[in-house]
Amino acid sequence: MSDDVYVPPQRIGFRKLSAAEMERYTEIAGEALSRFGIASFSLANIVLHSNVTARVLRPGCRPLALRLRTGPAVSVATEMAWLRAVRRGTGIWTIEPYSDRNTIWIGTGTAEIECSLFYWAEGEPLAAHLTPGNYRELGRLSAELHEFAATWNPPPDLAPLRWDRTMYYEGTELVVDDPRFATVISAVDAAAVRRTAQRADGELARIAALPGPVFLHGNIEMWNVLVDDHGRLRLLDFEDVMVGQPIHDVAITLYYGMERPDYPALREAFESGYRLVRPWPVAPGDDLDLLMAARAIMLLNHTLLTHADPGPVVVRLLPIILRAA
Question: Considering 120, 148, 181, which residue would you say is the last residue of a domain?
Fold first, then answer.
């Protein structure tokens, strides 16, 4: 991978698994793979991002990716129904489930671990290959996904997310003005962030109430897209599936990289690729920049609550948010 791979602000500071955690997750992975009927394997690595993922090697077989998570925001049934529909109904290259029965649950005494198995996806993150050409293709793929979603009739029992407010994950509240964080975010900046979140809440609620909502990926960003040796793009991470308007997906994608000097060229390329398939989904009066600020606010909030040293991330996120204040 290129040494100059771009790392968005909120990926700074993700901690490594401790030795005890590594031992625990190795044991859980072994039990899960045994229950999947996989007898001969080795674990190449176990890494922590938003979930714990283990790379599974098997003699003479394709590698696998075992995802371990607790308390998911979206049920695996909703995620897999959407992913399989996209795989059947489009030519979009995606992550590939291992089998129809690709998820089991393991009780650990303190929590139930959801264990989902996929084929390992080879390639490097789009973040290592940020070119206008790749962003044009990403725009085209996003439009193709939205075109399919407009025709898909989902089963009635699915429960995707709804981005109808800034803090749209269940149980989350904005904490920027909590005294605990006064050393990393000033009272003036915290007040500006809260005002921006309130404005974004109104815009998100308005868009969420529009007719004709469709299923969306919910997290198309440069670290959830792989580039293979032939330059093809593959979409990963369907676990944040939401229902709403295509502008929601576009805002999430275009939030990433806003601080880069080549961002205007990437944004223009994405839009041009999207327009190859369908009209640009940002209507007159839509505040796309405010939606991108809402994304940054949510990530800032998450950083404050989860990072031991949130300062480096806050310094990078605040200008993005205050630009829309």
Answer: 120
